[in-house]
Amino acid sequence: MNGNGMKKRWLSLYVENQDGVLSKISGLFSGKSYNIDSLTVGTTEDPTISRMTIATVSDDETFEQIKKQLNRLVEVIKVIDFTNVFVRMKEIMYIKVKRCTAQDKVECFQIAETFKAKVIDYGKDSLLLEFVQTATKNDAVVKLMKEEFKIIEVVRGGSVGIESISMMER
Amino acid sequence: MKKISGNKLLVKALREEGVDTIFGYPGACTIDISDELYKQDFTKVILPRQEVALVHEADAYARSTGKTGVCLVTSGPGATNLVTGLATAYYDSVPLVCFTGQVARHLIGNDAFQEVDIVGITRSITKYGVVVKKREDLGRIVKEAFYIARTGRPGPVLIDLPKDVMAELGSPEYPEEVNIRGYKPSTGVHIGQLKRALKMLGKAKRPLFLAGGGVIISGARKEFTALAEQTKVPVVTTVMGRGAIPTDHSLYIGNLGMHGAYASNMAVNECDLLFSIGTRFNDRITGKLHSFAPKAKIVHIDIDTAAISKNVQVDVPIVADAKDAIEKMLEYVEETDTEKWLEQVYAWKEEHPLMMKEKPVMTPQDVIETINRLFDQAIIVTDVGQHQMFTAQFAKITEKKQLIMSGGLGTMGYGLPGAIGAKIGNPDKPVISISGDGGMQMNIQEIATAVLEELPIISCIFNNNNLGMVRQWQKLFYGKRYSMTCLRSGAACRGKCGEVPCPAYTPDFVKLAESYGAKGIRVTKKEEIEPAFLEAMKSEKTPYILEFDIDPEDLVYPMIRPGGTLEDMIMDC
């Protein structure tokens, strides 16, 4: 961990859809002091295989080790490094804005339009927005909305990614 | 096809895998397996006195025979007692298959009697671990377990067996083939990379081989020696690699690292090519990383991709089994001109030869040299501490000898059970364990196992009344504040050390040995060493405990401070 090329990186994993696999992988990260920024998991078209998308902040050497250590696990079928491939990657995020004034609500709708978010629920003094975009954009939205509104509640799903067919990124 | 219980299938599986020895301790959740084992005669079942020692026995059995060690223990405390032994085996890449009992499926998660999540507990110290949730998976899982344990970089595998799954009737089939999509151990050698490495070897002016435990595990001692001889390249080893080339060979320099020989560490420091095979560059051998082998390009052969460039940045990585790689190298390698370099190495050896100060009283070196002289074949098992380092420094490991120790985890208490496991696997070879008085007491109950199994092991205790290695650090780095290291300290002297007489040492190892039905000899003088061994060597069935009075001031030198560099090497004080 010498800070060499410290940055956010993405991995996609094919793993056995078995008990304990998630704990094995998250345990590897915590046991070896690797960072996990986000981790998502779900089944694939083959019910015996799950796919994980993991974001980690690490330097070059640590990232190499992470890939090797993951590859070593019997339950891991394949590790794909998303760093240098074209991928489609999105994260779902809900933001509830509470104690809104009428002015706040107008602003929420403007934000929703700008960021291609949806307003999916509406109360007397609150609004619920749904964002499906890259995690980086979600970061930006959270920062913005924290500044704009008194009380917000944020839930994020973590990114899921898949390799592009054409040469498109994100 | 007639259906059989999981218990019966397990025993059938053990037979198919050629298991001839099981180390087991019974309990409620495995009693049905014990019952099935009662009805067979293809495998011996050894009953150690404690599961902690049980795994070490299976571990040393595996290390000394090349077979896979098999453990069977019950759920709960039986399973948790495996933890240290599993970690020991994991760090030293030992193939084990451990079966643990588990409560019935409907009780799992209920905090049932003797229920623990042992697969969860051992996740980071096993190569693979799994709970058998369905009877129909049992055969496949056991087959996979043996395959995973012994292939690639070997390691321990744990299989948790819920009692009801094992009682359930199902297919009697035990699969013959294994196909695990997430586990394909590397086979073969990348010839391009190997040739690149050999080219560097040919060009190097001061090349050096570094052999680790991988050379021993892959069974490549003969081939490696031939490689050194063909190239005329000198060799240093890690403690786990000791014996990769006979230690009396002219090309062998010694161990490197914290307690390595002066010449070895100088050679690592000055070499321009470090050709390493089967080592993970543990901190005990590298010291401060940026000053390790500062002038050298590094070639690294290892079966485990993840071991390469983990600790030390490598110039030429080669993923391969050590034996496969060495055999391939023997086809292509040419002699190099190392005459001048060897002269330098020999000069270093002469400058600071590895030896303890000659003293009128008995030293550890005297004992180990007696072993060297009296045994031309032997398995030597050590515990962990000063005696281990003395053994690693002075034990002559030639073709017919093997050195076994807990190198990676550094598990005290390994020595005696280790000797038992090795002797069970090698009834025709002399087996000697060397322990400190600290480590010996961690698994001393195993004398009973040795007596009942009629194992004529020779178990040496280097008794210096202290936890010597920690005491050594306290003497050198902590102003002689001997906190928690004196094995004679207790209520009578608490807070008054030096002012009141020391309490008497306990136990009396000779009497203790006798009470177990073993033989004990206390050796206090140099001239008593050889007669003691000569008597013990005559034993056919009775274990011998030889206790040697060792001066606590006998320290392990040279020593490089933890995280230090060569300049910090302490030669003596």
Walk me through what this model shows.
Chain A contains four helices and eight strands. Chain A is elongated and about 55 Å long. In chain A, the strands form two sheets. Chain A has a four-stranded antiparallel β-sheet, covered by helices on one side. Chain A has a four-stranded antiparallel β-sheet with strand order 6-7-5-8, covered by helices on one side. The mean pLDDT of chain A is 92. The relative contact order of chain A is 0.20. By secondary structure, chain A is of the alpha+beta class. Chain A has two domains: 7-81, Alpha-Beta Plaits, CATH 3.30.70.260; 87-163, ACT-like. Chain A, domain 2 (Alpha-Beta Plaits, 2-Layer Sandwich). By secondary structure, chain B is of the alpha/beta class. Chain B folds into three domains: 4-170, Rossmann fold (3-Layer(aba) Sandwich); 191-351, TPP-binding domain (Rossmann fold); 364-465 and 505-549, 3-Layer(aba) Sandwich (Rossmann fold), CATH 3.40.50. Chain B is built from 23 helices and 20 strands. In chain B, the strands form four sheets. In chain B, strands 3-2-4-5-7-6 form a six-stranded parallel β-sheet, with helices on both faces. In chain B, strands 11-10-9-12-13-14 form a six-stranded parallel β-sheet, sandwiched between helices. The model of chain B has no long low-confidence stretch (mean pLDDT 96).
